[in-house]
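Render this sequence as a predicted structure.
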Amino acid sequence: MMGRARSKSRQVLCTSISYFYVICLSAIFLVTMLMLTFRFLQMENPLRYSDPVLKSRNKDFEAQATSGAEDIPSLLRKLRDVPDQWDASAAHVWDSENAEYYYGCIKPSKNYSTSGGLNQQRVGITDSVVVARLLNATLVVPHFDHRSYWKDPSNFSDIFDVDWFIQSVAPDVTVIKELPQTVRKSLPKQVYNLRVPRKVPAWYYSRRIRHLLKRKHVLRLTKFDYRLANELETDLQKLRCRTNYKALRFTKSLQDIGQVLVDRMRAKGRRYIALHLRFESDMLAFSGCYYGGGERERRDLGSIRKRWKSLRLQNPERERRLGKCPLTPEEVGIMLRALGYGNNTYLYVASGDVYNGEASLAPLKALFPNFYTKELLANQVELTPFANFSSRMAAIDYIVCSRSDVFVANNNGNMVRILAGERRFNGHKRTIRPNVRKLGVLFSARHNMSWEDFAKSVRHHQKGFIGDPMEVKPGRGGFHDNPAACICEVPEANETLRIWREQHVQRPKEKELQAQSEVGSSLVIPLEDRSDLMEEFNDLRGVRLSSDTEAAEELPLKDEVADEEENTDGETEGEAEGDDDGDNY
């Protein structure tokens, strides 16, 4: 009996222990699965589960993204602490300090195709003139790539005054509208195509391309935007400026409609701000940032991101902290108010289709009710000749922005950089580019400080980002947004500027101590680093979204003369896509 009882109890104990193990293992498995699920959700939307400083900001974004037009008034309640006017008497709100002491100086001391949108084409045309000078070659008027993202069939003569262009650059480079028929007959059926690496130095053309040009007689350089180095000798930089700021003049029809819009803005208000607003869905998708739109935003932008196979998944929180996320329309409006522009300021907005439409624009319109676009200023008859051509519509915006009293942007794309350079050249007209990295921290903490403290911090962090003379050292940033070689000081102002520099320029040690005490102690991203994201976006956007690739050869960047055996005739001739007619030089 004892034996049986002991045996029975041992059996019960063993069974209980096995049940206990099963329950424990099940619990461990369940906890593990919950943790993995949490981590997966955090990867999908890091801003929702991490940085507590950003939580309130994301709630605002989500409310804005999920609300319809009828709920817009409720979205504007969070702007109640923003005053209608703020320190409108602040000095140099509408102009740049010491601008009168500088002027543009471009007098010298002694075959290409371009791609992308209007402003990438401007860069390509400008650099093609410099390269023709380096090679001592005749330049054929550039043909535009009609197969890029924009699908715009416009040619050079549809946008720029081609006769003026040829005449203006004649002292430096011979330009012809097309190859003479006698030359065309002596060439193979297809011209030798070549794609030069990005931002190569001047010696690359002198040593490698000149050697090839002598053998081939005619070259077609494809995708020719940003194919020349930022730093060149002074005379070549001034040739860039003469081409970009003088020779590239829009057609009379574009100049006329652009001036009409400028006159109408000035008739409404004596002065106006022009805002270049990049907040389209493809722009947001490429940035990898998160704006609180929940599943709808992740689905919409995620499907767009699939167009770029080489685009890696980014951490939205990290991208925002690095200053790579464009400001929202609301944030642009708040920044302008903090800088001293009241609600009676007239605002011209150049933009595409803004993501989330009116819900995204409503806060900006509430802050600046005098809100205009080219579609609001011009009637349908006036815009019809240009409406189906993206580059011509962009040219109209360019003219209105160029002639504005103040220009502001929420991004650092091609148009912004070229306009910034032109406005520096033409007297350092006030140009505001947001210090996104610093402002991102400020906007996250705005509701935790008084408006006075917030506005003071915005002004502090925007120093060096508002288009003043000397705010960017020569050689820093891209040449097209800081053409220092083409800007000279008025000789009589040397002593005045010397005293001003001594009073305002901080010593390196002082800057270091100040940086340590600033909000969000990370350093400001240099102009050239902040431009990388937009430059990469426009590169990828300009490439067709299909799997086809262009067959033009890209020469490696080497510091020696090419051998005769390299780039033989059979390597690339006859390989260009769709160019059998030989017209695109």
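Summary. Residues 111-249+552-572 form a domain with the Rossmann fold fold (CATH 3.40.50). The two ends are 106 Å apart (CA to CA).
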